[in-house]
Design goal:
The chain contains no helices and eleven strands. By secondary structure, it is mainly beta. The chain has a five-stranded antiparallel beta sheet with strand order 7-2-1-10-11, with no helix packed on it. A four-stranded antiparallel beta sheet has the order 5-4-8-9, with no helix packed on it. The termini are far apart. The model is unreliable at 1-13 and 148-159 (pLDDT under 50).
Length: 159
């Protein structure tokens, strides 16, 4: 009789809860426009089945539509940036939603949107809006895709 023993390690990405993945930075008046997501946990998160949404006619009668189906895995404490095309995000204002299936995980509203309160003003050409973990602000130094844009007191979250 031969007895075999094995040790298996699985790199399993977690299902997320609101706050586990946040919209960390975005640029709405650039070519291409982009949205950056940040994993705030100590485990990788699989984005299969996730999507970004935005509003059509946000200054008139906002209607939420799918912007981009997501895929990939965000490593623990890291960021992923997604190009969403050109003239997709409305420059005067819009609301970007992040959904896992039908569950809203995060949302940022910027500029002027009928019936919604903005988290931040609308970024202009060469600018992005960035979330520092507490509040949103406009920067003239976008950091698309860089972990350096993460503000954290936990050094284990930074590569």
């Amino acid at each position: 009789m031969v007895l075999a023993s094995g040790f298996f390690v699985f790199n399993t990405a977690l299902a997320a809860s609101p706050g586990d993945v946040v919209i960390n930075e975005f640029s709405s008046d650039s070519s291409p426009e982009w949205v950056e997501l940040r994993n705030t946990t100590a485990s990788p998160i699989d984005l299969t089945g996730w999507k970004l949404t935005e509003l059509t006619t946000p200054q008139e009668t906002p209607n939420e539509i799918n912007l981009l189906s997501l895929s990939g895995t965000i490593p623990a404490g890291d960021v992923l940036a997604f190009d969403v095309g050109t003239i997709k995000l409305n420059n005067p204002g819009d609301s970007i939603g992040l959904f896992e299936g039908t569950n809203e995980i995060n949302r940022v509203t910027y500029g002027t949107v009928t019936g919604m309160t903005a988290d931040v003003g609308a970024p202009g050409v060469g600018q992005s809006a960035v979330f520092d973990g507490t509040s949103w602000s406009i920067t003239s130094t976008p950091t698309k895709g860089y972990v350096a844009s993460i503000v954290s007191d936990d050094p284990t979250l930074v590569d």
